[in-house]
Every structure is written in structure tokens, then in C-alpha cells.
From TrEMBL:
HTH cro/C1-type domain: residues covered: 33-86
Region (Disordered): 100-126
Record organism: Candidatus Thiodictyon syntrophicum
Entry-linked InterPro entries: Cro/C1-type_HTH, Lambda_DNA-bd_dom_sf
Domain of life: Bacteria
Sequence ranges of Basic residues compositional bias: 116-126
Record-linked CDD domains: HTH_XRE
Protein name: Transcriptional regulator
Example GO molecular function: DNA binding
Length: 126
């Protein structure tokens, strides 16, 4: 039985390069919250400071398997990013659920008719 390395070595160099490039892209798409924070050169202490919470809370948050979308949004916002939730169906165009976050953005990047106003509250991990 051949292993993956044997199969890769049997490929022509151009095909092998394409496979490796795609594998790298797929791996880059899958990141944990900790990976995102480190990619932004932020410490747990700095993110905690930005969110007004303790470093221990950030550690617990990064290790959670389940959390509120508002908590995730606040964490990403604190790192300077934005969170977008997309819904994909095989027979429909992709839809952005932007109204969940009160951003007023549509999937095409335009403004929705009435952007929601939100009060910012401190995030407390569950």
C-alpha cells in the first residue's frame, strides 16, 4: 500500500506544486481564535485589555468549542477585524446574515435600508 508521500512523489512536478499550493491555502483557511490572535501579533493580555476583561477570560474563550456570535464578533473586532456570517445553499446565491451583527451590510457589500443601532456592552465569556 502506498502512503501519501509516495503518491505525491509520483506526480509530475507541476501537478505536485499545485496540490501543495492548494493544501497550504486550505490549511490557512482553518484557524483557531488563538491562531488568529497570534497572526495579528497580539497577546492574550492585549486582547483582554481591549475587551476590558482578564487574560484568564481570553484563555477560556479561546478554548471554547461553542460561544455566542456576539462574543466572537467582539473578539474579532478587538483584533481589528470584522466578522461576517455567510449562508450557502447549493441552488442559491450566498447570503450574508449581516443583520445579526447590526452592520447594515448586504452580501454585495452595499448598505441595507435600515442599519440596526447597537449599544456596545462588555463581553463576558460563558
Amino acid at each position: 500500500m502506498k502512503n501519501l508521500q509516495d503518491l505525491m512523489n509520483a506526480l509530475p512536478p507541476e501537478r505536485r506544486a499545485k496540490v501543495e499550493e492548494r493544501a497550504t491555502a486550505l490549511i490557512a483557511e482553518e484557524m483557531t481564535l488563538r491562531d488568529l490572535r497570534k497572526a495579528r501579533d497580539l497577546t492574550q493580555e492585549r486582547v483582554a485589555e481591549l475587551l476590558g476583561m482578564g487574560q484568564d477570560s481570553i484563555s477560556r474563550l479561546e478554548n471554547r468549542a461553542d460561544m455566542l456570535l456576539s462574543t466572537l464578533r467582539s473578539y474579532v473586532d478587538a483584533m481589528g477585524g470584522s466578522l461576517e456570517l455567510l449562508v450557502r445553499f447549493p441552488d442559491r446565491p450566498t447570503v450574508s446574515l449581516s443583520e445579526l451583527f447590526g452592520t447594515g451590510r448586504t452580501a454585495a457589500g452595499g448598505e441595507s435600508p435600515a442599519p440596526a443601532k447597537r449599544k456596545r456592552r462588555p463581553v463576558r465569556p460563558q
